[in-house]
Amino acid sequence: MIAGAIIIIAIAATGVLMMRFRKRWLAKINIVLTNRITGLFAGWLPGFGILTHVGRKSGKVYRTPVNVFRAPNGPAAS
Question: What is the share, in percent, of the chain residues with pLDDT greater than 90?
Answer without folding.
Answer: 13
